[in-house]
Amino acid sequence: MNEEDIVILWEAPKIEPPELRLYYDTNGKVICYCGDKSIPGDNYIVIDSHTFSAARPDVRVIDGKISTVSSNGIVQKLMPNDNEGISCHIEDISIIVDANEEHIKWKINVYEL
Hints:
Shape: elongated
Mean pLDDT: 85
Strand content: 25-35%
Number of helices: 1
Order of helices and strands: EEEHEEEEE
Distance between the termini: 71 Å
Radius of gyration: 23 Å
Helix content: under 10%
Strand order of the largest sheet: 2-1-3
Number of domains: 2
Low-confidence stretches: none
Structural class: mainly beta
């Protein structure tokens, strides 16, 4: 049998490794670990297989990186923000108003100590 006599009957499909993701909320808290790209949303980071297999619920995502600092080392502070956040009444932050009304936007910022 020569090389010319060999016929390829079937070509195996190319297998792409899954993209492992950690989805988090606006405060950096873990929502879920997932290997599926079909979940909507932009709040995720791509992680390695060791981080994925550990699936720690107590980590935070701060500036696009995983932080394993205990909750004592993380401070959340409510701050006014011009571009994003919740629209609140000018004189009372506990009253949420429509964005068309006069308002101040407030957002929770997360700081790692």
